[in-house]
């Protein structure tokens, strides 16, 4: 992984890529903890091999894992919120997904900018 991706992807993109892969993974898993367990070793290894900031990449892994827990129809938070609100889970997720997509995009850009400033 580090020999392939670490040599082709610039360091300023690593936090954004790790964040987006983590967000995608956590959306389909529905669990932040499982995503953190999968992504933390990969993200930290990529950060070390490319010279990216470890704290920024760690934050990107944690934030990416949190996306699925809050937006995925499989996550605990949307299921509980939908149950309390007495709406279907899919209706709830469809109502929050446009707003979450905007924030995910802004976060990915900010991770690039933060990494570019730190390095």
What layout of secondary structure does this protein have?
Blueprint (H helix, E strand, L loop, with lengths): L4 H4 L5 H16 L2 H19 L3 H18 L4 H10 L3 H30 L1
Helix pairs in contact: 2-3, 2-4, 2-6, 3-4, 4-6, 5-6
Would you write up a description of this structure?
The protein has one domain. It contains six helices and no strands. The chain has helices at residues 5-8, 14-29, 32-50, 54-71, 76-85, 89-118. The protein starts with a helix and ends with a helix. The mean pLDDT is 90.
Strand fraction band? Answer: under 5%
* Helical content class: over 70%
Number of helical runs?
6
Radius of gyration, in Å, reads 15 Å
What is the N-to-C succession of helices and strands? Answer: HHHHHH
Average pLDDT = 90
- The total count of strands amounts to 0
Count the domains.
Answer: 1
Overall structural class, as computed from helix and strand content, comes to mainly alpha
Morphology: elongated
